[in-house]
Fold this sequence. Notes:
With about 270 residues, the chain is of the alpha/beta class. About 40% of the residues lie in helices and about 20% in strands. The chain has a 7-stranded mixed sheet with strand order 3-2-1-4-5-7-8. Strands 6-9-10 form a 3-stranded mixed sheet, with no helix packed on it.
Amino acid sequence: MTKRSMSESRKKTSIVYLCTKSNVKSAVGLQALIDAGYNVNLAIGWSSPNTKINPGLIKGTRLFLAKVLDKLLLPRSDPVAEIKCDDCELICQKNGIDWVETEGARIGELQSIIKKASPDVVFSNGWQSHIPNEIYDLASLAALNCHSSFLPEYRGGNVTFAPLINGEKSSGVSVHEIEDRFDSGRIFARHKVQICERESPKTLNLKRAWITSGVIIEAMENVSRGNAVHDNREAPFYFRTTYEKYVWTRILNKFRRFVCLPRRRVEPRWVKRI
């Protein structure tokens, strides 16, 4: 395919983009699709329910103590360059893309709006809740999700804290086909980032955000050719963990290492075979 024909093909590919407004990885991915010439004609921003959350005295104290211990006892990683970009809503305003914001669990109510956009691709990047079948079935070509791990490693929501607790040497970004089970569809692109010994959640997330644009564009090109790079149907699933548990477990692992005891690990709660 020539560069001209590829450019024309991208312009004809209609995309509905599911994201989180202020998430850097979401914004990087959206801008990458626009810059590559894809036709993003609707973006939907995830928002949490508009409720005031009071953590209470005990939980608030635990969170405050965890932040203090994090600063005092956990290693400070080498700095990673910040990514300067607009949030997703502002990117849409600048590029004439329709923007809708909704509570994640209510995305099913936007079915008619998404259908009107006639998407070839429904693309999720930073969306934080389950996407029902009736939404991703509206994509005529593919429904894709950009996941912050090197799949099939670390399916699920514990993609940042768990690798750091477990002492992994690498993480990554993967774009996979959306299926009923989280993070289980065919993988169309994936790239690794290295985890240093002093890595923090912030620097790991920045490293992954930096490579997101390349992974997304590669995945879109592979989808158009029908080329999946990996089957992802059997892998461990990691449920989300709290920031407080992350801090305490990493501190405990520092002590266990000092006295030559094995590391405490975050283990998957189940392995789904489909």
